[in-house]
């Protein structure tokens, strides 16, 4: 359970998560707004942005590395097959690859220039490449997406980030196989799935609809850039209110990646209870083991008495018993690791949405083994010390 809890609290972008921020604005109409301080203290803006707001932020701060993302489900087919299948797609801009450290296995991401020219280029997952093209031979090949041909310029390596923090609303646990330039995907009328929150009549083209559907992330490397970007958000909000585009009082959020995860993903209570219960179970095992060792060592008091009579010191007796307990601990640690691996497999089966959190890496296995051996030594200390106090003469008489 400790490994699971570490997985749930893990930093998805180590070393940079404090520099990656999620942006929220509130373009909703005045209806439903109650006013008062409670609004500013607790009302959460929508998780996504409208197309117009995302474009306005991009135009206002062209020097800030920003990523806009949406999710879709599209039919795909290779140029060598007539068989069509559906795949989860991610629509994003070129900056997202660097912003999220997305690992390219072969080829490259598309460039800003290709994105601006609306070149039909695409990045696919390594899994899809091996399934449809037998690996990196997919580079340069054509793939049909939603009835249109795209050139494969890059293959994304396995990207094990759980949860999918960059779009929790629509794909907290899904894995994407297709990555398409966002403007091209929308202009090509590729379907958008996931969280679409409309506060007015929705049109066929989401770019012109009063709907929040884009996740927007920015990289702000230091406190000064964070402060400047907050000024940008304040100025944008005020200008859009003056233009009549925003009805409500100023309400925006700029959260770090970890703050965004903590805001939206709560560790299930059952996991917390199971973790606490596992520690109590460990304590009970420690006490029980100590009692068993006490009885075992007590039954060997004649042996201890003979060794003491032959010149063995108390420290030698203690060291001998502890070494025996350590051997038992090593045996128990081996069994424990095996049971742990089986337990993780079972947990993955009975909790599919959280399956990717249930992982035992080498570090976790080593910690478990060391903990088992340490507990065996700790549980043997009192029985070993007590056994070493045996009087040689009385022990041999008894």
Spell out the helices and strands N to C.
Answer: HEHHEEHEHEHEEHEHEEEHEHHHHHH
Query: What average pLDDT do the residues reach?
Result: 82
Largest sheet: 6 strands, mixed, barrel
Question: How many domains is the backbone divided into?
Answer: 2
Tell me the structural class: alpha+beta
Binned, the helix content reads 40-55%
Q: Within the largest sheet, what's the order of strands?
A: 2-3-8-5-7-6
Distance between the termini: 47 Å
Overall geometry comes to elongated
Task: Evaluate the radius of gyration.
Answer: 30 Å
Number of helices: 15
Which regions contain 5 or more consecutive residues with pLDDT less than 50? Answer: 37-41
Strand runs, count: 12
Strand content: 15-25%
GO molecular function: transmembrane transporter activity
Transmembrane segments: 276-297, 328-350, 362-385
Subcellular location: Cell membrane
Domain MacB-like periplasmic core: 17-232
What can you see in these coordinates?
This protein has 398 residues and is of the alpha+beta class. The chain has helices spanning 2-8, 37-42, 51-60, 95-99, 112-117, 126-133, 168-171, 182-187, 223-242, 257-264, 269-298, 301-309, 314-350, 362-388, 392-397; strands at 20-24, 66-78, 85-92, 104-107, 121-125, 142-145, 148-156, 178-181, 197-198, 211-212, 215-219, 253-256. It has a six-stranded mixed barrel with strand order 2-3-8-5-7-6. The protein has a two-stranded antiparallel sheet with strand order 9-10. The two termini are 47 Å apart. Residues 37-41 have low confidence and may be disordered.
């Amino acid at each position: 359970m400790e490994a699971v809890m570490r997985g749930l609290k893990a930093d998805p972008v180590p070393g940079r998560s404090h520099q990656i921020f999620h942006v929220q604005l509130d373009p909703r109409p005045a209806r439903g707004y109650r006013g008062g301080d409670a609004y500013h203290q607790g009302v959460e803006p929508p998780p996504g942005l409208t197309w117009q707001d995302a474009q306005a932020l991009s135009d206002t701060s062209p020097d800030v590395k920003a990523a806009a993302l949406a999710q879709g489900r599209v039919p795909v087919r290779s140029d060598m097959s007539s068989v069509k299948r559906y795949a989860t797609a991610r629509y994003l801009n070129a900056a997202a690859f660097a912003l999220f450290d997305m690992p390219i296995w072969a080829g490259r991401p598309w460039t800003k220039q290709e994105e601006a020219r609306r070149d039909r280029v695409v990045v696919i997952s390594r899994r899809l490449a091996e399934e449809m093209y037998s690996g990196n031979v997919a580079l340069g090949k054509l793939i049909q997406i939603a009835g249109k041909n795209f050139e494969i310029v890059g293959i994304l390596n396995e990207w094990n980030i759980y949860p999918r923090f960059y779009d929790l609303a629509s794909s907290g646990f899904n894995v994407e196989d297709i990555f398409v330039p966002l403007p091209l995907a929308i202009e090509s009328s590729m379907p958008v799935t996931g969280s679409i929150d409309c506060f007015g009549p929705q049109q066929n083209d989401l770019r012109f609809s009063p709907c929040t559907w884009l996740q927007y992330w920015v990289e702000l490397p230091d406190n000064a850039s964070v402060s400047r970007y907050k000024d940008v958000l304040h100025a944008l909000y005020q200008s859009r209110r003056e233009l009549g585009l925003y009805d409500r009082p100023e309400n925006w959020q700029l959260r770090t990646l970890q703050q965004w995860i903590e805001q939206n993903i709560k560790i299930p209570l059952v996991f917390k209870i199971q973790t606490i219960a596992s520690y109590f179970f460990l304590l009970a095992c420690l006490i029980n083991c100590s009692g068993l060792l006490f009885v075992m060592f007590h039954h060997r008091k004649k042996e201890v008495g003979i060794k003491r009579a032959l010149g063995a010191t108390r420290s030698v007796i203690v060291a001998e018993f502890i070494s025996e307990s350590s051997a038992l601990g090593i045996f128990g640690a081996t069994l424990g690791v095996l049971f742990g691996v089986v337990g993780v497999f079972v947990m993955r089966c009975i909790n599919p949405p959280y399956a990717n959190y249930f992982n035992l890496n080498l570090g976790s296995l080593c910690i478990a083994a060391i903990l088992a051996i340490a507990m065996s030594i700790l549980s043997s200390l009192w029985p070993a010390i007590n056994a070493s106090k045996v009087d040689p003469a009385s022990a041999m008489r008894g």
